Structure formats: structure tokens, C-alpha cells
Amino acid sequence: MNILTIGDIFGDCGVDHTSMVLRSIIFEENIDFCIANVENAAGTGITVKNYDELSDAGVNAFTLGNHTYGKKDVLKLFEHESNIVRPANYPMSAPGRGSTVVSCSGKKIGIINLMGRVDIAVSLDCPFAAADREIAAIKDECDFIVIDFHAEATSEKIAMRYHVDSRAAILFGTHTHVQTADETVTAHGMGYITDLGMTGAEDSILGVEKDIIMKRFLTGVPQKFEYAGGRAVLNGAVFTIDDKSAKCIGVKRISVK
Questions:
Q1: Is the CB of residue 31 less than 8 Å from the CB of residue 61?
Q2: Do the Cβ atoms of 96 and 38 come closer than 8 Å?
Q3: Is 168 helix (H, G, I), strand (E, B) or coil?
Q4: Alpha helix positions (H), 35-143
Q5: Catalytic entry in 67, 150, 175, 177
Q6: Where are the beta strands (DSSP E) in 116-178?
Q7: pLDDT digits over 7-16, tens only?
Q8: What pLDDT does 251 receive?
Q9: Is 150 designated active site?
Q10: Per-residue buried b or exposed e for 60-85, using 16+ beta carbons within 10 Å of the residue's own CB
């Protein structure tokens, strides 16, 4: 089974580009299932319109992050859709679910969303304890587990790799919007990459108009963000899962302009 994972879809540019190229990627890479991080689909948060467009394009499951509650529409999605998850280490009283199980081609895929605590301005529980809790909750209901760790620090993501190795088939990082070149399959058969990268405007600084960010760096004065447009790129990775062992046997980074 080939699982396509898409890095932070950012704004209209990222949503439109995903809608335009995803079907061809699914065909060319023989994709069975697609998971996308969509916490920036509406700039901050996701709308029902974004969800519908990306579902129509071929996304099967959705993960979030520090902008989970950026748009009120997410509450409707949590109420009506079972294939969208928010970080499991938000307080237990927060709306939404931290894990889910989705069926595909006779397999049941467990999906867990976590968020790091290093340099993240959100009040969070321990992501490592949350990983233990969510894995225990769904491991008997699914054939294998996929985890999106939405985190700033590479060290925290790598630590999570060692924490869940042998208990998950796939662990990928999101949030930094820059694709890393450390994709690997561990000795225990878990596919890993520190960050998938971003899906959005290529001529930008992490998806935002570059002149705005440059002015902020040069003057130290806060600026109102405007999301960039123009030529786009879709960044992600394809993980191949062995049908018999339910372990990862290959990881391939992708970047589609």
C-alpha cells in the first residue's frame, strides 16, 4: 500500500495547487491513501469549503496543528467528519479528536496527530504521553498507525521517532514548512521524515509574501501577514507499507511544482 502524505497546505495557493496536481500524483505514484496537514489551508485554520475542495481532489484524511481553531468551521468538521484529527495533546476538553481509524482497500489505518511543545505558543500536554495514550487506544482497531507530529524543533521530532519506533508504521513531521532530506526506514520498519515541507507559494517565505517578512526582519516591527500567490509547489512523501507485515519498506520525498 502506498500512502501519500502532504506537507502544510498553505492558503488558496496551496489548496488550488493541490486540487490541480493531486490526481496526477495519485496516478503516477500508484497511491492508495492520502493524508494532508491542513492547519493553514485558510491561512490560519481550515474552512468547510477547503475541506470539500481537498476531499474532491483526493485527500482521504486530514491533520491539523497550532492553528487548529483558526476558523470556526473546524467545529462543524469535528462534529460531522471522522477523518479529521487535531493534536491529541491539546487539553482533553478541547473540541475534536486526537486519533481516528479510516478504512482503505480492506485495511484499517490508524491516524494520530500530535504537537510539539518546544517554541510553540500553545498550552499543551506532553506529546510523548499523548502518543502512548492514543496508540494504546487504537492499536487493536487498525492494521497500522500513521502519526503526524506538528512541531518546531527537529530534536523533538527525532526524539518522537525513537519513542514510537516499532509501534507506528509511519511518523512524519510538519509545521516548519521546509522539507528535510532525512527520510528513512528504521530497523523496526517505521518510515520517518523530520518535515514534509509546505504546499503553497514557491516565491515566498514559508508561504507569506516575502517583502512583508523581510521588512519584519529588517525593522523589528510586527507586520500584517499576507499570503503569497503565484507559482506553487506541493511537498510531501510517499510511504510504502508491506501488506503482510504492515511495516514500512520505503520512503520517497516528492516535490511537484
A1: no
A2: no
A3: strand
A4: 48-57, 73-80, 127-138
A5: 67
A6: 144-150, 170-174
A7: 999 999 999 9
A8: 98
A9: no
A10: bbbbbbbbbbbbebbeebbeeeebbb
Query: If phi over 0 gives left and psi between -120 and 50 gives alpha, with beta otherwise, what is residue 226?
Result: beta
Read off the amino acid at residue 124.
L
Q: What angle do CA 15, 16, 17 make, to 5 degrees?
A: 95
Pairing of strands 232-241, 200-201: antiparallel
Contact status, residue 62 vs residue 90, Cβ threshold 8 Å: no
CA distance 129 to 241: 26
Q: Structure pTM? A: 0.95
Strand partners, 169: none
What confidence tens digit (pLDDT) does each residue in 140-187 have? 999 999 999 999 999 999 999 999 999 999 999 999 999 999 999 999
Under-50 pLDDT residues of the chain = none
